[in-house]
């Protein structure tokens, strides 16, 4: 990426002697103000929202997640972090294409990026493609909580018959007129309590839709090397960013799937209900948003992840009494790709990029969607 206007901010957990680069030229670091991540009341999570200084080397606490907000045009933010003494490569903070319907998040900044998990880090460097207005870096450390112990799977729901679903590798569902519809068992879903959600962070009440028509598949653009016990902390960080920084009612996704194949409850309101999320700007209505925790622009989706996606999607389609195969006409309520009132012919199981100007859910996961649709069909029909 060309950097005609390059700004670099270094945030460190100890006093630095390296100068800050602005416009590609070193500037003397006359002051080194301390930036301290503040502990959120009632939770181990701590965070800070740091205005980008013009020429300073800044000290800060350790963090594991980072995002950016700004006013005006997207400045094209890239970051790299120092983890265990080594700098990572530069990573672009993609502009956030998730978002709520009108009436939620009215206090949100003009622009914001995805929140990414970078692992336990002690320094951050930021560079921008264009001059940024009111650029702030959001640093989050979700801390350690009892919820971080690998949770005990919840007991199966009473309606779960434990039926195994056949799976094939065909890209297109084999739909037959003789196929028999069956009840899909509720998959194991880890609750909000199990990932340590602080319910006091919510601001408002859940909204419900009257019909289930689509599943939108996402990825969270996190690093892919997180461990199983770190999943709960990642969820707390996303929840904090969505509610406290962006001003949303709750975490945007209805469900999240980690790389170990575990399904986690996202937005509150009841996993069996048709809760309207804030995951697919312009198309939140009559849909469910499921995000895989990881970056699937850089790696393939495992069979374990695809099975979990198929399990939760088939269960939601079954509860909504909806046929999962094919396409459907949906009307946009206004997104960065389709104006309000525009009718769009979409797959019933689609990727975020089909409705918004984004690469989500990553090229590798997006390529698996035909297979995923097939897996969902075979869970619902024998």
UniProtKB/TrEMBL annotation:
Positions of the N-acetylmuramoyl-L-alanine amidase domain: 201-362
Region (Disordered): 96-115, 144-190
Biased composition (Low complexity): 160-188
Domain Peptidoglycan recognition protein family: 187-335
Molecular-function GO term, any one: zinc ion binding
InterPro entries (alphabetical): Amidase/PGRP_sf (IPR036505), Amidase_domain (IPR002502), PGRP (IPR015510), PGRP_domain_met/bac (IPR006619)
UniProt-listed GO biological process terms: peptidoglycan catabolic process
Similarity-based family: Belongs to the N-acetylmuramoyl-L-alanine amidase 2 family.
Protein name as it appears in the record: N-acetylmuramoyl-L-alanine amidase
Organism of provenance: Nocardioides daedukensis
